[in-house]
Design brief:
Distance between the termini: 68 Å
Number of strands: 0
Structural class: mainly alpha
Largest sheet: none
Radius of gyration: 20 Å
CATH class of one domain: Mainly Alpha
Shape: elongated
CATH topology of one domain: Tetracycline Repressor, domain 2
Number of helices: 9
CATH architecture of one domain: Orthogonal Bundle
Low-confidence stretches: none
Order of helices and strands: HHHHHHHHH
Helix content: over 70%
Amino acid sequence: MPKLWNATIDAHRREVRDAILDATVALAAEHGLLSVTMSQIAERTGIGRATLYKYFPDVQSIALAWHDRQIANHLELLSQVRDHAGDKRLEAVLTAYAHIHQQRVRHHRHHDHGAELAAFLHRDEHVAGAQRQVQELIRDLLTEVAKNGDLRDDVPLNELAGYCLHALDAASGLPSKAAVHRLVTVVLAGLRPPR
């Protein structure tokens, strides 16, 4: 087959897959994950059930695939922020992470059944893997800051990276971007060498 044909088919498959993921999460937010059926997903997506089963075996696998896509998007965003932030890379990544966390929690609160979906998605081990990747990204940035002497040296880097992530979890309860920026300022102050 010609390359253009293959590219067109691949693009179509990605579009169908994305539509399935989005429809499933929308239905889960409306009705609760346990109430969603493959028939509802197929109807909402505008495809036949047989086509849907070619992509996914069940509703739970679709929800996990959607979550994997979200995690990949968040990791890509954090990498882009890191790569374009100049000499304020650590602050920029911490701020972006806090905003992601704040928006995710707001999204789950906004939808009646978001808590059920969140509980299902966040019990899986791939979430722990994503957390490790974010922690490694932050640890690498902390290593850069340490080379300049601007980082406390009485706490191991892994612990400082963990401190950043856990402290920024507090962004989930913050009402505004200004509050997130204040939280990041406090976290950064905790990373500086003691006087």
